Amino acid sequence: MMSKTIMVVDDSISLREVVGLALKDAGYDVIEGCDGNDALSKLSGQKIHLIISDVNMPNMDGISFIKAIKLLPHYRFTPIIMLTSESQEVKKREGQAAGAKAWVVKPFKLDVLLGAVQMLAIP
């Protein structure tokens, strides 16, 4: 079986490492981006099964990143999990309106995140 590719977008190197390692251990391929612009530059039409993105990042924040992703025909239907310290309803609604499928608040449990990844990653 071919492994699925997950993109992790966060300005925190340590968070990208922790999440990336957990995903790789679970059998996923991982592409990392340090902010929305960096992540967009790494999308070249390859299949991405799921995107995990922070909300608060320099250069391009997570909400703007989702909106940009949804304009790309290859990635319009790619599910997105927001992994963020933002727990305000207003931000959650903004994320959902932009197209986020799930909202996981930091600090988070890896098994909860992996469960969400497993449920949401497209076939």
TrEMBL record:
PROSITE patterns: RESPONSE_REGULATORY. Keywords: Phosphoprotein. The keyword Chloroplast does not apply. InterPro entries: Bact_response_regulator (IPR050595), CheY-like_superfamily (IPR011006), Sig_transdc_resp-reg_receiver (IPR001789). The keyword Ion transport does not apply. GO terms for biological process: phosphorelay signal transduction system. Residues 5-121 form the Response regulatory domain. The modification 4-aspartylphosphate is found at D54. Gene3D superfamilies: 3.40.50.2300. This is Response regulator receiver domain.
